[in-house]
Design brief:
heterodimer, A: about 200 residues, mainly beta, five-stranded antiparallel beta sheet, B: about 70 residues, mainly alpha, about 5% strand, globular
Chain lengths: ~200, ~70
């Protein structure tokens, strides 16, 4: 207390599941996340997500769902520190079935985003928690740059008929902290995946 | 305060927040709009505050209004 105020990590005892249930990507320039003010010095989760001025669903301001192979998606993070400088290496690996023009086009879009503006990534874990990565705007203002890029993806045809014919996509980036949670439901995110008629 | 209203130019917009579902802002229930207004005030996110037609009441007034609305 005289030097630093620490925090408890206490949770009601219950089972918790691993793995990822759903993934969507977005252009970080399109969405503004809302975060309440700190409480007792603790950061709060994101409570809302909305299109920024100038971005419209009709012109592509959307969250884009990724239908990955079931049980083949994972978020990994690794914290390290040099002196007082803390780094979190975030990595998202997911397997997409069927090498095809669709996969080629999907990756071309990832490459363009990686080069130009980074990728926004939002996912729901099997535990039910939703996390956000690569976001750029919070409460209407830009935050420290959090750039996610496609880097290190692999894939191929396999040799046998029952070998996997897949792309193993890796999206990764370093940041100053672990990810913030989004407190809404996945259905609320799905609303941002469709164009209003 | 009788109700919260979204500005007409934002009625077709969608904002993702707990319970918003697939509805546009214009289709949200009064309870949902109160929740969104509370989120807007707690964060002081001007983009969210600006969605509403009239100046928002205080957080306390909104919380009272939410209870009254649920009891209706």
């Amino acid at each position: 207390m005289l030097c630093i105020t620490l925090k408890n990590y206490v949770r009601a005892c219950s089972a918790v599941s691993g793995g990822i249930s759903d993934i969507a990507i977005f252009d970080p320039a399109d969405f503004d996340f809302t975060q309440a003010a700190d409480i007792d010095g603790a950061k709060q989760p994101y409570t809302a997500a909305a299109l920024r001025a100038g971005a419209t669903a009709a012109t592509g301001g959307l969250m884009f769902l990724i239908t990955f192979q079931q049980d083949e998606a994972e978020w990994q993070w690794k914290q390290s520190v040099k002196g007082c400088s803390t780094k979190y290496e975030h990595s998202f690996n997911f397997q997409l079935p069927d090498n095809s023009q669709t996969l080629t086009n999907f990756q071309a879009a990832l490459d363009a985003a990686s080069c130009c503006c980074g990728l926004g990534f939002i996912f729901r874990m099997n535990s039910g928690k939703i996390f956000v990565a690569g976001e750029k705007y919070v409460n209407g203002s830009s935050i420290q740059r959090f750039t996610l890029v496609q880097n290190g993806s692999t894939g191929g045809s396999g040799k046998l008929i029952d070998d996997p014919n897949v792309g193993n996509i890796i999206i990764a980036g370093n940041y100053i902290r672990n990810l913030n949670e989004f407190t809404g439901d996945w259905a609320d995110i799905e609303a941002l995946m469709v164009v209003v008629p | 305060m009788d109700s919260l209203t979204i500005k007409s130019e934002y009625a077709d917009n969608r904002v993702a927040f707990k319970g918003s579902g697939l509805r546009t802002l214009g289709e949200q229930s009064q309870e949902s709009l109160i929740d969104l207004a509370i989120i807007a005030l707690q964060s002081q996110n001007k983009n969210l505050i600006n969605l509403f037609e009239d100046p928002l009441p205080t957080l306390t007034e909104l919380q009272v209004f939410r209870v009254r609305t649920k009891l209706k």
